[in-house]
Amino acid sequence: MLELIFLSIIIFLLLILSWVWPPNSPWAPWWRTNRKTARAICKLAEISKNDIVYDLGCGDGTFIITAAKEFKAEAIGVEIDPSRFLISKIRICLNNLSSKVKIKRKSFFNEDLSQATVVVIYLVPKTLEKLLPKFKKELKKGTRIISYKYKINLRLEKEDKKNNLRLYVI
C-alpha cells in the first residue's frame, strides 16, 4: 500500500514538472493547446475539408479534434507518450471522430509527413531545429506549417501575435 502511494506521488510530481519544463530542454513538456487556440490555428492555416492535418506531439488531441469537428479536415495526431496517446484516443472516440481522426503512438521523427497539407507544432526550439531537415525533405511545396509560441528557421508568411502563432509555407 505504501509503495502505491509513493508511486502515485512520483507520477503526480512528474506531471506537474511536465507543465513547467524549460523551453530549451530537448524533451517535450505537456503544454496543452486549448480550444480557442486550436480554432485560431485552423483559421490562420485556412484549414478546410480538403486538408490532411498532422499534429506532431498531439497531447490530449484538442487540436486534431477541433480541426476535424469544426473545420471538417482529416486529422492525424502523432504522440509517443502512452498516457497522452490514451487520453487522445478516448477523446476521439467520445467525440465520434474515429473515421476522421487517427492517432499514432510513435515518434514523429519516424512518421512519413508527405501526405500532409498542414503540420501543426507546439514543440521546444531544440526539437524544431531537428525537425527542419525532415520538413524540407518530406513536405510538398505549399504545405503549411503552424508553430505555436516558437519560431522556426523558415520564411514567415503570417503571424497571429494575439495567439502567438506563426504560419510558414514550404
Can you walk through the features of this model?
With 170 residues, the protein is α/β, with parallel strands linked by helices. The chain has one domain (24-169): Vaccinia Virus protein VP39 (Rossmann fold, 3-Layer(aba) Sandwich). Helices cover 38% and strands 19% of the residues.
Task: Summarize this entry quickly.
With 170 residues, the chain is an alpha/beta fold. The protein is built from five helices and seven strands; from the N terminus they run H-H-E-H-E-H-E-E-H-E-E-E.
Helices and strands: which structural class? alpha/beta
Helix content: 25-40%
Secondary structure: number of strands: 7
The H-level CATH homologous superfamily, spelled out, is Vaccinia Virus protein VP39
Give me the number of helical elements. 5
Poorly predicted regions are 22-26
User: What is Rg?
Assistant: 16 Å
Secondary structure elements and their pairing?
Layout: H1 2-19, H2 35-44, E1 52-56, H3 62-71, E2 74-78, H4 82-94, E3 101-104, E4 118-121, H5 125-138, E5 144-148, E6 156-160, E7 165-169
Parallel strand pairs: 1-2, 1-4, 2-3, 4-5
Antiparallel strand pairs: 5-7, 6-7
Helix pairs in contact: 2-3
Features:
170 residues; alpha/beta; Rossmann fold; seven-stranded mixed β-sheet
